[in-house]
Design goal:
Rossmann fold, globular, 2 domains, six-stranded parallel sheet, single chain, alpha/beta, 15 helices
Amino acid sequence: MRVLVLTHNYPRFAGDPAGAFVARLARATQAAGHETRVVTPHVAGAAEREMDGGVAVTRFRYAPERLERVGYTGSLHRDALSKPLVAMELPAFFWSFRRAALRAQRELQPDIVHAHWWVPAGAVAATLGTPFVVTSHGSDVRLLESAPPARALARRVLGRAAAVTTVSRFLADDLQRLVPSLGTPVDVLPMPLDVKHFESGRSEAKAVPPRVLYAGNLVASKGVDVLVEAVARLRGQGVECELRILGEGPERSPLEALARQRGIAGAVTFSPFVSQAEMPAEYGRSTVTVLPTRGNAEGLGLTLVEALLAGSAVVGTRAGGIPEVVVEGATGLIARDGDAVELAQKIGRLLSDPELRARLTSRGAERARERHAAISAAARFIDLYGTVRVGDRRAS
């Protein structure tokens, strides 16, 4: 088959975590013998055309380089309605995206188009006339809650799709709730991970004192402030531990101020995102990795999957799809979102019980391998592509 992938999020450089799961799927599809091409936005410093593991990648221009800021940062789903400068770029962005997709369609003559996120990629795919699959990853589903007018566009896009998938059961249920007239069934297909890459981080040489790790965006919905409070409580109880926060976002300064206020600034280290090449070691050196997300703002929680593979125990909340990764008492521990007292208890339990940590981590890693190994995850999508192509031929 020939597969055209449309996405506003794709690794910009070696080791870039942005859209890494999209890239893994594209590479695995190419490796399985299916010609695969990606169309994605340009960003400062990136090549306009390049090869990525056999996959031809085209990055379309839509503004002067210094103003290309719509893709990669979540701006489309989070900031389009609140930041005028982002909103002003959207018409040129969509026009350029569609033009680049049409050019790729003429050159590749794809059997199937795979759009990641129903908007913008799904909206572009719906105009091409080629059978297409849409995968929702979370932020595009949350957009339907924060901007109800977007639901009319979502109905048109998803209604034209030959197949719709999400990365978790939670997101599938949410999508069907928010777009109730959606006639297409929503399949849950996990995205692939580089299992061996993350397993390479396994190490007996854990950080001393024991390290609690958070890796992700520093935004209010992630609940990192609750984690800072939980670590402060643990240290106040005499539990030796340190907190490492990897990520970027508007909450960094408030989080630094909170750590100072709670008297634990010396036990909290902040770092910008590190490359994917460095993440296995970050997880492997950590005793516990925590994802303290609030509400529904978590499509699945892949950082916890990666952490388990690298040998770190995990604590999550019931936010979004996290319980599909963290099964209480089986693959990790779950705390109520927003509850620093219970989060401290759960983290403290893992810090103090090495046998529990080992048992939960082992089971969690085994489950992660079964669900997220690149070959098996890609095979599910390739089967779906084949089904869509056969169905299109029968319809014609």
